[in-house]
Specification:
With 489 residues, the chain is α/β, with parallel strands linked by helices. The chain contains 22 helices and 16 strands. It has two domains: 241 residues, P-loop containing nucleotide triphosphate hydrolases (Rossmann fold, 3-Layer(aba) Sandwich); 232 residues, no CATH class. The longest helix has 21 residues.
């Protein structure tokens, strides 16, 4: 069907105008009845956040998403556009998406009065009806609402007090659409006052001149919880005008986190002839690192540990395994524990440390998190399985180092010298003895698990050795390893 080009044609087509919130509600109801997937790509929120979002849209509420960093707040906000119509008509040339039936700007009203049913229309897509702004302390009322444009006034011969001289800001330009502000507490208080005034009363003063702007817009905000840092806060009158406050969260289950990282991490490398195989236990260790960091007293919990940590770590782990395969000329890329240690630079920038953590250092804490994460996952796979023969081999004075650049052939020769290790390490997995890369990854995972249980030790070079007598009665913590280097002795 051809879209009407004039107001008269629009009237003849039977088009009915609705508010943007009614439009969102109608399309959401249709999707729910059809059983369509809401918010595709958002994992782990099916029983918590998404039902609350649905309720908010059905209630025609303005919305704020509260949560720590890396909890998909911005992605959720952008996907709200899926509930808008594919396109809507506006008065051609309007800066504020004027409704042909009810324009809000002086330009729209004058155009309608001058041309009547011959008023020319444009159709704008749902993507053009979404406006997003990151709140920063330097944002002004002019950025959000608008300002008088003296050049426009001079060119058109209007007085500065004439509404036609206004250069509209982001909020009026989002009329009949969705306006999103990220990190709302960073917005200055006076700007927040301007927001709630136009939300509630539909008017605003620009350079002292009152301007009536009854905007039709869904306002969506995101913010960290207000107790996070002293950067700013949301003023009470604005909070009072936000209909629904929805709390986001990190994944509650390890497998949910694994699914998110599988979806988001870039691991499909173009132009490679090698086959990439990421063992499940490696994926789980990477995810467990984030879980451990969120519970660690040395990491600032108010800041949070973003889900971006396991995503970037996975990418770095794959890259280190890819580098090894390229250097050794092997056909398979199989990440292992050594590659997780090589990915520490992808962890340290994702954690804000408390004072105690700063004293220890981000690099040391990252190593400790890897150790603890490997221990947690190891216990799940090898409960009740004894590695006594392997531990005795190390206690006899033997050591083993699997360099992250060592070939599979070299690693297998070293591992075959360790009694019971290979056969026992493969018990929980469906790994064939001929799959060299997976065998090595499984064995190194076992060695790291034994290290986490303080049955063997790991030196700074990544080699596994016997545990020292002083540590035999303690579960290995980072301070034990620091003592070995002499830093805290």
């Amino acid at each position: 069907m051809q879209e009407p080009k004039t107001l008269g044609e629009l009237k003849e087509s039977g088009y009915k105008r609705v508010s943007v919130k009614e439009e969102l509600r109608t399309n959401l109801v249709r999707k729910l009845r059809a059983g369509e997937k809401l918010f595709p790509g958002i994992v782990g929120y099916d029983e918590t956040v998404i039902p609350q979002l649905v309720n908010a849209v059905l209630s025609k509420h303005n919305i704020i998403l509260l949560g720590l960093r890396g909890q998909a707040k911005s992605r959720i906000i952008r996907q709200l556009t899926d509930f808008l119509d594919e396109s809507i008509p506006i008065i051609a040339g309007s800066e504020v998406n004027d409704d042909p039936f009810k324009p809000i700007s002086a330009f729209g009203r004058q155009t309608l009065e001058l041309h009547g049913d011959m008023t020319q229309l444009e159709w704008i897509t749902r993507e053009a009806r979404f406006v997003e702004k990151l709140a920063t302390p330097d944002v002004t009322i002019a950025d959000i609402i608008g300002d008088v444009d003296p050049i426009k006034a001079a060119k058109s011969g209007h007085l500065l007090s004439d509404e036609l001289t206004i250069h509209y800001g982001l909020l009026p330009r989002a009329n009949r659409g969705i306006f999103a502000i990220n990190e709302l507490p960073d917005l200055a208080g006076k700007i927040q006052v301007g927001l709630f005034n136009i939300m509630q009363e539909g008017d605003v003063q620009i350079k002292g001149y009152p301007v009536r702007l009854p905007l039709d817009v869904l306002l969506v905000f995101s913010a960290n919880p207000e107790d996070y840092t002293a950067r700013g806060k949301i003023i009470t009158p604005l909070k009072d005008r936000i209909g629904s406050e929805i709390l986001t969260h990190y994944p509650a289950e390890l497998q949910t986190a694994v699914e998110i990282t599988k979806q988001e991490a870039w691991v499909t490398r173009d132009g490679l002839s090698q086959r990439l195989v990421i063992p499940d236990f490696i994926r789980e260790v990477i995810e467990q690192i984030a879980f451990e960091a969120r519970d660690d007293s040395r990491v600032d919990r108010r800041s949070g540990v973003s889900q971006r940590l396991p995503i970037t770590v996975t990418e770095s782990v794959v890259s280190n395994a890819e580098r090894r395969a390229l250097l050794t000329g092997e056909d398979d890329i199989v990440p292992r524990i050594a590659d997780i240690y090589a990915a520490i630079p992808s962890m340290t920038g994702k954690m804000e440390l408390e004072y105690e953590g700063e004293q220890v250092g981000a690099n040391r804490i990252a190593k400790d998190l890897i150790k603890r994460a490997a221990g947690e996952v190891f216990e799940g796979y090898f409960v009740g399985i004894d590695f006594a023969g392997t531990v005795r081999w190390f206690e006899a004075g033997n050591s083993l180092r699997l360099a992250d650049t060592a070939s599979a052939e070299e690693c297998l020769q070293l591992l075959e010298a360790v009694p019971e290790l290979i056969d026992t390490a493969l018990i929980p997995f469906t790994i064939k003895r001929s799959e060299d890369g997976l065998v090595i990854a499984g064995c190194e995972f076992v060695l790291e698990g034994l290290y986490a249980e303080n049955k063997i030790s790991r030196n700074e070079e990544g080699g596994y050795t016997a545990v020292t007598k002083a540590k035999k009665d303690r579960r290995g913590m980072i301070y034990d390893d620091l003592t070995e280097t002499g830093k805290y002795s």
